[in-house]
Design brief:
Blueprint: H1 2-22, E1 25-27, E2 32-35, H2 43-46, E3 61-63, E4 85-92, E5 102-107, E6 113-118, E7 121-127, E8 133-136, H3 138-145, H4 149-152, E9 158-165, E10 190-195, E11 199-209, E12 215-225, E13 233-240, E14 246-254, E15 260-269, E16 282-290, E17 293-301, E18 306-308, E19 314-316, E20 319-320, E21 323-328, H5 341-354, E22 358-361, H6 368-377, E23 380-384, H7 395-411, E24 418-425, H8 438-455, E25 460-464, E26 475-477, H9 492-500, E27 508-509, H10 553-556, H11 561-575, E28 583-586, E29 592-593, E30 605-606, H12 620-628, E31 634-636, E32 643-645, E33 651-658, E34 662-667, E35 670-676, E36 688-692, E37 696-706, E38 709-720, E39 729-738, E40 741-749, E41 762-769, E42 772-773, E43 785-787, E44 792-798, E45 804-809, E46 816-819
Parallel strand pairs: 21-22, 21-28, 22-23, 23-24, 24-25, 25-26, 27-28, 32-38
Antiparallel strand pairs: 1-10, 2-3, 2-4, 4-9, 5-8, 5-10, 6-7, 6-9, 11-12, 12-15, 13-14, 13-16, 16-17, 18-19, 19-20, 29-30, 31-33, 33-36, 34-35, 34-37, 37-38, 39-40, 40-44, 41-43, 41-45, 42-44, 45-46
Helix pairs in contact: 5-6, 7-8, 11-12
Amino acid sequence: MLKLVRYLFLFIVLICSQLLFAQQSVRLNNNWEFVKQDLGGVWEAVRPVGVGNPEAVPLWQKVTLPHCVNAEDAVDPDVNYYQGPVWYRTQLKIDNPYQNGRTILHFEGAGQKTEVYVYTTKVGTHVGGYDEWTVDITDAVAAFKKTDVYQKQFKGKVPVSVRTDNSRDLEMIPSDLSDFNIYGGIYRYLNLVYAPSLSVDKMFAKAEVDAQGKLGKLSVKTRLYNPSGINEAIVQLKLVDAAGKIVAKTEKKLSSLTGDIDLWSLEVKKPQLWSTDKPLQYTLQYEVIASTGNYKGEEKIGFRHIEFVEKGPFNLNGKRLLLRGTHRHEDHAGVGAAMTEGMIRQEMQMMKDMGVNFIRLGHYQQSRIVLNLCDSLGILVWEEIPWCRGGLGGDIYKQQAKRMLTNMVEQHYNHPAIIIWGLGNENDWPGDFPEFDKEKIRTFMKELNDLSHQLDQSRYTAIRRCDFCSDIVDVYSPSIWAGWYRGAYTDYKKASEDEFTKVKRFLHVEWGGDSHALRHSENPDKALSKIKTGGSADERAGDASLYGGAARISKDGDWSESYIANLIDWHLKEQETMPWLSGTAYWPFKDFSTAIRPDNPVPYVNQKGVVERDFTKKESYYVFQSYWTEKPMVHIYGHTWPVRWGDEGEEKMVKIYSNCSEAEIFLNGKSFGSKKRNSQDYPAAGLRWNLPFVKGENTVKVIAKKGKETVTDEIKFNYQTEKWTKPAKLELKKIDQQDDVATIEVKLFDDKGVQCLDAINWITFGLTGDGKLIDNQGTSSGSRKVQAYNGRAIIKVRLNKGQSAVSVSSEGLKTVFTTL
């Protein structure tokens, strides 16, 4: 019995110690209130409020963190998104387990200027929407706990108020001319951290290895947080490999606790290498032992050797690796920048499943969750500061840029995934200041380049699209938009070769084009006949506009998924025959919101993604998979193309995207033969058939083989042979209902009742009654104002278990209604 009691006691002690360690950092997600305006001062957030009294205004709403001010208005077709101050408030039960410990608020990101208050005391400020930062609230909490209101008004809790402000400011980066929203709010996680008097502020672990992978070197430095002025401590360190085996350990006594302190240098023979296929990581475990308490932590590291060969490709661990890349904005349907960890995990896994081994994080430091996933999934990273467009501001502007570069490098220094620090984007774009001086921009770019190398000698620097600074950085990406902003996509290889000769190290980030999800075309390349080809494919001022200038696909094309699939197919085919190419990155992975594109088919959305803003895959996702992945896959183009059209008896092309060696196709149960895949046989790597559809319903099935494995795909669609004239009427009806959500579809017909399958009219949905449109999602089926796709448009309605009337209107046509 005594032994059992002893075991129980030890078990409780163990559990308590683990809980204590686990609770040193807690996400503050719940019990927040929010008001979308400024207050007269912090007193308005904390004063005693009687229900129904004037003090109860403005009304606060309950929210959870992370929270973005612009979750919906960023893509509201009828308003400019809100840029201004907002307030958050909560009450915290603060009980620090450490004697004389520090209580810290750790912000993983808040936009764009932030002030933090404990009761009425301002305890911290931060400028910059994307780097991490902390506020030590220990002294303010201690002072507040001595007041009467601590118990009387707040019942033993501590009121914390946070003001964020994303107002336009020319002396801040990023510029509001940038092609993305400058979001507001506490849109990344906020943590309550309890730490002993002496803790680790930064742990820098530099892992190096030679190109042959024979000898690894690890050097560890630390920067301590020591507001109490403690004089001595012991640091214990362990290096643990991917299998959990302790490789080495050490202990160091410290008598000087200021500045950056050297802790450990060691050699690791034949280290396990980190690569994109096998992203093996070591764990550096550490414990700081002082008289005031112990502080534990760990850092993940990876041994890998990187080289951008001058006038050549990219090598990882001594072997050529073609960087197969894309881009990421921190942006999602319904939440704006406030993506949860689950959403981020899903997005990064979708990228890896598409075959991505490289990502450029556009155009700012991103969440630690993103970088951790890049490390564990094996995705190499270009991460950059948000010096983007507008020109160059004054001293405050420059100081912010340098501070954000320093924070980015120091906060993400240990990630093996990172290979490039980006210093700027489109810095040849004027507009924010009366002066646009190229020499001053060059001078500042040199300062940033020097600072980056000073902070981290082991990684490269890069910029995109600023030719007059191309010689300053280690790696340069010009702007080549073959087949979109300039020329035809067949110009891509020649344009790349021309740009490659101009710089020391060439990497092509940003290519592709917009596609309006659910829009398809029987003749997607038709607009190319108007385009001047054979010249430069560089994007220039005005090319992104939908108005004026020379003919270009971005302005004159059909914005169909069909065209973009062809463009991507051509680029990927060509990249296989460019042995000197370091790599490319398609722009971007996912559609995202932008204030400067109000006239796009989904207003305020950059629609160049291969998935929609809610993770819905477009057809182009599968084109990438067919070139970049090993796991057998097959996809028939046209899963979201319900009606194809043409003449009776006309043969129509069906494209199969697959990484399998051969495929056999069936139309309405009849085989039309097998074909072998050949990546250089464009389009669809030779897996294309001209098939005689029958009028009405058709079924296409494919069986593809790779070795002993077989994969299949099947689609059904109607084939329309009737010709149509211009749209004359709208028809609106419910086509589906799942639980309390109904799907509504509008179709456009001519005066003879034939569906107008090429109609791109603007459609506006409305609703009155108990329900609510599921709109402001920034997707083709989640916007109340949207261009039609193939003579139709859809939207969902949350019925709220009641009755509603849905309307749909289009200029020049009679408005129609349906009751739900």
